[in-house]
Structure formats: structure tokens, C-alpha cells
Amino acid sequence: AQVQSVIAELDEQVQECDGEDQSQYVTSKVAGRVKKIYVETGDSVADAMVAEGALLLLSLDGKMAVQMETGAELEAGSAVMVECSDGTNVSGTVKTCSGGKVTVTLTDDGTALGDTVTVLDDSGDTVGEGTLYVHQPLEITATAGEVAAIHVAENQWVEAKGNLITL
To answer: What confidence tens digit (pLDDT) does each residue in 107-140 have?
Structure first.
């Protein structure tokens, strides 16, 4: 009888908690810069994961990159200028150059994911064009829930273990 009483009391507590929402936080284990937020408040995590494969995209090494084909003679380590679609210029560095394919890296601070950029050599001649991508990306994921709040903005630097999203 005593055990039945305890079980009934626990069942009652479970039923009281059953309708309550519980918040969970999405965090990152490493620091990085937020480059893309795929969700909005009220979105289903499952739907976002199916559509985008992630909730957020972080840049881990502080760099964006652009890859292009060119006939220009460049060497790894050479300085170049990268002209963004909004007219701003950012200094970049040739990371690799092989078989007519050149990869240039530049800062991720203020540069936009997916922006079409033009790369210029040290004399101002156009080397080529390409689309910016995150050099070392980390996709932040979750499995279930609904987005209750987003605590970060695109281009914001985040520290490891900080709350990014509340579910």
C-alpha cells in the first residue's frame, strides 16, 4: 500500500509536468563568427534541419575564401585585393594556385557568405571572380524543438559554450 501511494504521487507529479515546456539551449563547443542563421523565432528545428542541414553556420578560423579559375600568374602567399559587391575592398592572400585554379583567403569580419567578389592583383588588374564561402565552417545542429529565441546575429563573434539559440 505504501509503494502504491508513492507511485500514485509520482504519477501525479509527472502529469503536472507533462504539459510544461522545457527550454533547452543550443551552444557551440568552440568559438567562431556567425556567418549564417538559417532559423527564425517560431521555426521547427526538424524542418530547418531538413531544409538547410543546420541552424547556424560558424566560421572557425576567421577566414572566408574564394576560388576561381584564372590565367594570372600568382604564387601562394601573394597579397591581393578583394573587391566585394558593395564596393568595399578587403586585403586577401593567395592560399593556393595550381593548374589555373586560385584560392584566396580574407577576413570573415564584415564579409558576406555567398557574396560575388572580384580579385585584383597588386597592380590592380582583375585576376578573376568568385563566390565567398566559409574557409573552415562549423554547422550548428539540433534534433528537435521549436526556436524560442536567437541570441546571436550574423557576423557576431561567439565564445565557446555560449548560448546561441533557446529551444
So the answer is: 999 999 999 999 999 888 999 999 999 999 999 9
Report the C-alpha gap between 133 and 153 in whole angstroms: 18
Q: In three state form, how does the secondary structure of 35-103 look? A: EEECCCCCCEHHHHHHHHCCCEEEECCCEEEEEEECCCCCCCCCEEEEECCCCCEEEEEEEEEECCEEE
**Exposure class string for 37-69: b at 16+ Cβ within 10 A, else e:** bbbeeebebeebbeebebbbbbbbebbbbbebe
- Coil, strand, or helix at residue 120? strand
Distance, CA of 100 to CA of 98 (rounded, Å): 6
Cα 129 from Cα 68, distance rounded (Å): 6
How many Å apart are CA 59 and CA 64, to the nearest integer? 8
Kindly state the helix (H) or strand (E) to which residue 7 belongs, with its residue range: helix 2-18
| pTM, to two decimals | 0.82
**Cα dihedral 31/59/38/151 (nearest 10):** 30
Residue 53 C-alpha cell reads as 542541414
CA diameter of the chain: 90
Query: Which residue matches cell numbers 517560431?
Result: 42
CB 139 within 8 Å of CB 24: no
